[in-house]
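User: I'm curious whether this sequence folds into something compact or stays loose and floppy. Could you predict its structure so I can see for myself?
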Amino acid sequence: MSRPTVVYFLLAYLLSWCAFLPLALQGQGVLSGVPVWLHLVGAYGPFLAAFIVTAWTTGRKGVCELIGRLTRWRIGWGWLAAAFSPVAVFGVVALVMRVISGTWTAASGFGQVAELPELGWLAGWLVWILTFGLGEETGWRGFALPRLQARYNARDASLILGLLWAG
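Assistant: Here's the prediction. I'll summarize afterward.
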């Protein structure tokens, strides 16, 4: 791995764990009063790391390119359908459960954000998209994966990324 890629991973972990560590310590009884929504803030660690390392290595041009890749959508209808397939699967399962049990499955938990229980499912989806969708995917897939694929084949790069993401 190149030096900027290693710096990216270290920075992504550092920034994310600045938010996650107080929550972990609260879970162990060491701290108290830490807001649970801080978990959502931790999702922006990979996002911020991607922009910091991009600015450091390629300057304004690289940052503009990264932003451009966030707003440029070049996917076919099949991939768009695949992106929404969890909604379709949920609908089919709910329908099957209705036929089997005679009652409708409660859909209120679908898209629910445990950290913000007052949000409805639609607002919950938006929160997930804007935090872990935008925050993590920009860093892991938008920054790290192309750099790993420059050195490794797609399978190996994805496996390496998956292992590092699991951390």
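Summary: DSSP finds seven helices and no strands in the chain. The helical segments are 3-27, 38-41, 45-71, 77-83, 85-101, 121-149, 154-166.
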